[in-house]
Amino acid sequence: MSKSRSQLADYLAYIIIRVMVCVVQALPFSILPTLASGLAWLAYRVDRRHRQVAIDNLQHAFPDRFTMAQIDRLTRQTYRHFCGLILEIIHLPRRINPYNCVSYLELPQNPQLVDRLLSDRPLFMVTGHFGNWEMAGYVLGLIGFTAHAVARPLDNRFLDEYLRRFREKTGQKLLAKHGDFDKLQSILSRAGILGTLADQDAGQRGLFVDFFGRPASTHKAVALLALEHRVPLVVIGARKIAEPMHYELLVEDFILPEEYENRSDAMLAITQRFTTALERMVHKAPEQYFWLHRRWKHRPAQSRQKVA
Prior knowledge:
Elements: H1 2-26, H2 32-46, H3 48-61, H4 68-95, H5 101-104, E1 105-106, H6 111-118, E2 123-127, H7 133-142, E3 147-151, H8 157-167, E4 173-176, H9 181-189, E5 193-197, E6 207-211, E7 214-218, H10 221-229, E8 233-242, E9 246-255, H11 266-284, H12 301-307
Parallel strand pairs: 1-9, 2-5, 2-8, 3-4, 3-5
Antiparallel strand pairs: 6-7, 8-9
């Protein structure tokens, strides 16, 4: 009986989300910045728990750069950015097509990136919760490259299927973070393109690397696959530069696994390098990073023992 009620609740949540999406898509595109500001104002005041998480994160990340008043302003700007991001993602399928995509995402004149996309080697596109992390994969599909994004399925299967249809509309494919490892290896063996968010807390078993001056638990799989399959990494991000929905693609670093083949700490070194690249990217527009999530949720075992 409880399972039946859960299914019903999930379906009702799905219907509510679909109705909200329809309403937002019916609104003029030009009104999105104003609507985002209003939603951010409300969220900042109502969402006390995540507001405090953001303030704490920012205080640790920038202990000497910002005053408390500036941190509060930056927290408000973070809410504003992500409220705008949600509204833009809802409009994404109706606004962007193969003929106008470069009007919404400026691509860098980077021969190395082009060479990597066209090479006969696989490629790992590493990004974080910065800017519009959906934009790069979406545009990549529009210009003819099939990328596979690694993501955790939503608990609500109705919403998960809906989001999957949206994200796969241009040819991008989704792989489950847990359960699709064989498929993932097969794609790399065929010189495919993978994309992943590499700034999520990996629990106590993750690799702890420095991120804004604190050890952050980070998933091992990116470095492990890069070394095992000789996959080059490119650290990228879509930074917003104008309203509404105008971004530029940042290419922060290229990492070749063969440079680390003879190192005993190769996996840790690669993980630290792409994490440092993500940090440099966040410094360029700190209000566009998702400070609302608990990136430093877990601590190394030694640190916990010292506190105890």
